[in-house]
Amino acid sequence: MTIEHSGGGDPDRSLALLWRDRSTQPEPVRGRRPTLTVDRIVASAIAVADSEGLTAASMHRVAKELGAGTMTLYTYVPAKNELLDLMVDAVLSERQFPAPNEPRPSSWRAQVQLYSERTRAMYRRHPWLRQVSTVRPALGPGVMAGDEYLLSTVSGLGLPPRQLAAAASSIGTFVDAHAAIEADNAYLVRVTGETEDTWWQQRMSFWENYFDTERHPTMVEVWNGGGFEASAVDQAAEAYEFGLNRLLDGIEAAAAKH
To answer: What stretch of H or E contains 91?
Structure first.
């Protein structure tokens, strides 16, 4: 699986496009009155990526979907890097987290749960996101809204600023990583027609012919104690909920020391 990297576009061009709603400049016009908009181009690219994968969302393919020439797209979006930045930020914006002055769940844990639910749903709608690294994010409205919301969920715990930032980042990293894994599993089910449980069942001979109990005593102990009895899907869900709750417990414990 090829990994793309966001934030790779020209900074000035990407930022101007990402924050185009704040620009007073008209969209580029060459010759006749334009029939395209940046929003239409981005929406079309996302639709192609959703149905056929990220690789399919080339400038040429998007232009074809819109009934336009490829060169015409370049008068709106200068390169594929900038298009990827716009696509990622657009789907991040779909989460629509409450703004600072809008109602939200009363407890901080419930606010984190809202972040979790909307982020995981976003990955399910757009499984190609698992192929995009946001280590160097494009600083668009979707990214900034998510970061602001996460910081605000832990801001009332009394943590010092650096710990507050670390706590919010830890939550975001945990949720995003698990959401990407869920999306990857769902993608494999779609393209192979096999569920995860079916995949494991087809490899039962491994346990009979290759698994060495003496080299893996802890696995054997957990197995005999029923630790692996749940389905693959249920195990993943349990691991996610357990990990997130223990992470939040740790943040609360750290906050209690201040």
So the answer is: helix 80-93
